[in-house]
Amino acid sequence: MSENTTETIIGGIVIVVAAAFLYYMLQSTEISHPRGSIELSANFRSAEGVSVGTDVRLAGVKIGTVTGLDLNPKTYFAEAHFTVPADIELATDTQALITSEGLLGGSFIEIVPGGAAENLGNGDEIEQTQGAISVVSLLLKFVGGGEKK
Fold first, then answer.
1. What SS3 class is residue 77?
2. How far apart are the first and last CA of the chain?
3. pLDDT tens digit string along 52-92?
4. What is the pLDDT of residue 135?
5. Is residue 104 part of a domain?
6. Taking Cα atoms as reference points, which of 128, 55, 119, 123 lies closest to residue 88?
7. Residues 82 and 19 in one domain
8. Which domain holds residue 45?
9. What is the pTM of this model?
């Protein structure tokens, strides 16, 4: 085998491996939405720890991903946009909470389903939210014993 043939074969193998990696990445991160999905939004007082790509979970199971995070110029709240599968019907009184996995874990948006008769649709907003709670400020309150006046 000549040197050019060997280089061509190795180059082809590298391209096949790169294509396989790209396919795996698209499937595991749900960037390509094989199922139908809807986009929802929620406004949080504090979205600390949440960024584009953060998990959206229901009962501890990942059901979606944060696709955008902006500052609402009128309310100065963080406006999170995320996708969830269209086959999961969420009531209009559903809650969205920013929760952390533990003391040192990352944050995610937890969906708490409601019981209203009407369901959220594509582009709707979840109105009942709870922003991120700062662990540092909680520890400082605990260690300081609170302010006494």
1. coil
2. 87
3. 988 999 998 999 899 999 998 999 999 999 999 888 889 89
4. 65
5. yes
6. 119
7. no
8. 37-141
9. 0.66
Distance CA 124, CA 90 (A): 11
pLDDT digits (tens, 9 = 90+) for 19-28: 988 887 766 6
Q: How far apart are the C-alpha atoms of 131 and 137, rounded to whole Å?
A: 14
Are 25 and 89 part of one and the same domain?
Answer: no
Residue with tokens 């709670």: 133
Domain count along the chain: 2
The rounded distance, in Å, linking the Cα atoms of 89 and 81 is 17
On whether both 119 and 50 belong to a single domain, the answer is: yes
Using alpha carbons, select from 124, 90, 109, 1 the residue that is nearest to residue 51.
109
Asked if residue 38 lies in contact with residue 83, where contact means CB atoms within 8 angstroms, the answer is yes
Q: Which two tokens stand for residue 132?
A: 């991120």
Q: What is the mean pLDDT of residues 89-112?
A: 85
User: In a 10 Å sphere around its CB, with 0-12 CB exposed, 13-18 middle and 19+ buried, how is residue 93 labelled?
Assistant: middle
Q: Identify the H or E element spanning 59.
A: none
